[in-house]
Write a structure and sequence with these properties.
229 residues; alpha+beta; 5'-nucleotidase,  domain 2; four-stranded mixed sheet; two-stranded antiparallel ribbon; 6 strands; 41% helix
Length: 229
């Protein structure tokens, strides 16, 4: 009997030593961010020097657009400009380039008629994507055209029309395409780009390529023709 009570006592002591777990809540109110939210003067003062320097860089005029540009499908002057610009920049790397092909979803802004600033290009292309040159086969070439048609059209350089309509197409086994690394990695369901046997990552950001092109071609040469398939 004594042993029994000793065992019970030990169990009680063990149970009393067990830590008690509790759930604590600390309700945090939601802060609605709108025009009623007042700015923090201390924070504004802290970032003001950096903001001013950045704003000065964004306001630099680099070119001129004769017309307002916005993206449309199946094609638009804005998409045509971007594709022609990247084709031109990629070609100037000294690599073989037959045409440029970009994605409609990568265009994130518009360009007003008049002066073009660095900030305009940053709004147009806020991503860090870079120019990539990919070697594709004739089969992959047609797959790209089919996928682009399903999507309603994608930006491409004028050289693509010449290639597609050329009777020499049947004698071409491969093409070199300037695009962005997002598509080269198979983005937007363009997985055929990942089957390439040759890929050149130029290290040039799409945004920087556009800035270079705008500086070199001033006023901006615009093509409003429909580059449809």
């Amino acid at each position: 009997m004594k042993s029994f009570f000793n065992i019970v006592l030990i169990l009680i002591l063990l149970g009393s030593c067990k830590p008690h777990q509790s759930v604590y809540t600390n309700p945090i109110p939601n802060i609605k961010i709108d025009s009623t939210l007042s700015s923090n003067r201390r924070i504004k003062k802290l970032i003001a020097p950096f903001k001013n320097v950045l704003q000065d860089k964004m306001d630099v005029v680099i070119g001129y657009s004769p017309a307002f540009l916005e993206k449309k499908r199946p094609s638009s002057a804005l998409g045509n400009f971007m594709a022609d610009a990247i084709y031109n920049v990629a070609l100037n790397t000294g690599n073989k380039v037959d045409f440029c092909f970009l994605n409609y979803g990568g265009i994130r802004g518009t360009i007003d008629s008049g002066d073009i600033t660095v900030g305009d290009i940053f709004r147009l292309m806020p991503f860090e994507n870079e120019i990539t040159i990919v070697k594709i086969s004739k089969r992959q070439f047609y797959q790209i055209l089919q996928q682009a048609s399903k999507k309603g059209g994608e930006p491409f350089s004028y050289e693509l029309i010449e290639i597609k309509n050329s009777v020499q197409l049947i004698n071409r086994d491969f093409f070199y395409v300037a695009t962005n690394d997002y598509l080269a990695n198979g983005g937007d369901n363009y997985s055929m780009f990942t089957e390439t046997t040759e890929r050149i990552d130029t290290g040039i950001k799409i945004r920087d390529g556009l800035i270079t092109y705008v500086k070199n071609f001033n006023p901006l040469p615009l093509d409003f023709n429909q580059r449809t398939f």
